[in-house]
Amino acid sequence: MEHNLSVGLDIGTTKIVAMIGRKNEFSKVEILGIGKSKSLGVHRGVVNNITQTIQSIQQAVQEAESAADLKIDEVTVGIAGQHIRSLQHSDYITRSNSETVIDDEDIDRLINQVHKLVMLPGEEIIHVLPQEYKIDGQGEIKEPKGMYGGRLEANFHVVVGQVSSIRNVGRCIQTANLVLEGITLEPLASANAVLSQEEKEAGVALIDIGGGTTDLAIFRDGIIRHTAVIPFGGNVITEDIKEGCSIIEKQAELLKIKFGSAWPGENKDNEIVSIPGLRGREPKEITLKNLSKIIHARVVEIIEQVFVEIKNYGHEEQKKKLIAGIVLTGGGSQLKHLKQLVEYITGMDTRIGYPNEHLAGDSDEDITSPLYATAVGLVLDGLKRLERRKAEQEELETIKKIALEAQNKKAAEAEIKEKPIQDRRSFLDKLTERVKDFLDSAE
Fold this sequence. Notes:
Layout: E1 5-11, E2 15-23, E3 29-38, E4 42-43, E5 46-47, H1 50-68, E6 74-79, E7 85-94, H2 104-114, E8 123-135, E9 138-141, E10 151-162, H3 163-175, E11 179-185, H4 186-194, H5 197-202, E12 204-209, E13 214-220, E14 223-230, H6 234-245, H7 249-259, E15 272-275, E16 284-287, H8 288-313, E17 326-329, H9 338-346, E18 350-352, H10 373-405, H11 409-418, H12 427-442
Parallel strand pairs: 1-6, 6-11, 12-17, 17-18
Antiparallel strand pairs: 1-2, 2-3, 4-5, 7-10, 8-9, 8-10, 12-13, 13-14, 15-16
Helix pairs in contact: 1-3, 3-12, 4-10, 6-7, 6-8, 8-9, 10-11
């Protein structure tokens, strides 16, 4: 695989998407190929059948490979699912020497301390996201590096998930003959794809309505403040239509996409859609008013649960107001009149998020659909990781060059030892390493 390419693999409840992208000369992302397969073996974002998931992954990857005429071997994967939860935590360290300035090492020490938090059995910390720092009691510090102080403390947003679920995803990737290049939390990937920096600064709630789950990510002052995964998505709406109209799932899904609306007021009583009966039976007639009533009831329930999470973050406090309102994305956001319903329930400005913020201008219309927000975000994440690796490599080369110019080989080696390259990997990179190590030793 070329070095400047990144592959995002979105393992969803309804579909698995493999997307290949690279940066063009204008620093925008060009999508070279996309593959999509029906997701079998995933329920509410969690793998529950390894064999079927592997087959679906392979099918999506092969489709993307033939579209881009490339061979894929490394992928960046998104994790979501109902096992993801988040909590707020404060911690501090006391520095041995307050005469020196705070550096990366101190911040890493503080973050690593948070990783030692005792979790429920089977749970593991996935992300530790610093919110704001305090130095010797002085608060509201965003970047403590380079400052003096004895006591460094911070508030953290900690995201927790089940180890077994993450390892199962890793297992599927490995068995599909792919290398796990990175792991990212799906709401974060979607946010990177559809939100602008101004929105993240002003305060915004991203609601990603998928097939099996609805993910929420709240940003304020450019920092992620709250994440939640609600175990309902587009599938429960389809399920309700299937039960309420006594039809099969395939027909219910088509009905929802073609005629579904989240607002029952707009349909007249005499608008009827006829559905072919099964195996020679009489066709069924369904009024669109009834259909939208069924959809409306379930959508209201999902939005209200999301709104409870937004309130838990503290949206009603003046200091925590989300000025940019709500951005809806994911396949479920394409439901007619959903934007109006969300505005009506929450009283917040709402827009539909399309992942075209970072894409090249000539991108295919299909790719800029909210359906692919997570996949685009994962491609972006992979490209960022490649850039970081390249920068670290260059830094190492420079150190070696300086050292070798000293001619004396011993002096060169001493200099390299003296200037170790800092392990600046994000926790997700370290998590990826741990999943890889686990899979290797489990062989």
